[in-house]
Every structure is written in structure tokens, then in C-alpha cells.
Amino acid sequence: MDERLTLVETKLAYLEDMVMTLNDLVIKQQKELELLRITKDRLESRIAELSEMAPDIPQRRPPHY
After folding, report:
1. pLDDT digits (tens, 9 = 90+) for 17-58
2. Looking at the domain assignment, is residue 9 inside a domain?
3. Could you give the CA distance from residue 51 to residue 40 in angstroms, rounded to a whole number?
4. Is residue 63 included in any domain, yes or no?
5. How many domains are there within the chain?
6. pTM to 2 decimals?
7. What are the tens digits of pLDDT across the range 49-61?
8. Is residue 42 in some structural domain?
9. What gap in Å lies between CA 31 and CA 50, rounded to an integer?
10. H/E/C letters for each residue in 3-38?
11. Which domain holds residue 36?
């Protein structure tokens, strides 16, 4: 009985460690995702500004496509 309890406690300890590791990874990825969203928004804003400054530039694909 003691062996089984020790085995369960050991597995639980490993699972708790894995959950904490995964949680840290999710937090890190969320921060990276937010940074990418901010960068994307800035780029979209900048493209819109440039488009307004030069409206006579055609918005079509070049002929080699």
C-alpha cells in the first residue's frame, strides 16, 4: 500500500510540474501574441497613412504575378 501511495504522489508531483511549465509557456506565448498584434496594428496604420499620401499609386499586382 505504501508503494502505491508513493507512486501516486510521485506522479502527482511530476504532473504539477508539467502543469506549471505549460502555464509558463502559455503566458509567454500570450505576451508574444500581444506584441505581434500591436506590431500588426502599427503596420496597418502606417500602410493606411502611406496610401493616403500617395493615392495615385495603383493598387494592383505587378504584371509578373
Report:
1. 999 999 999 999 999 999 999 999 999 999 988 888 876 666
2. no
3. 16
4. no
5. 1
6. 0.66
7. 888 887 666 667 7
8. yes
9. 29
10. HHHHHHHHHHHHHHHHHHHHHHHHHHHHHHHHHHHH
11. 25-50
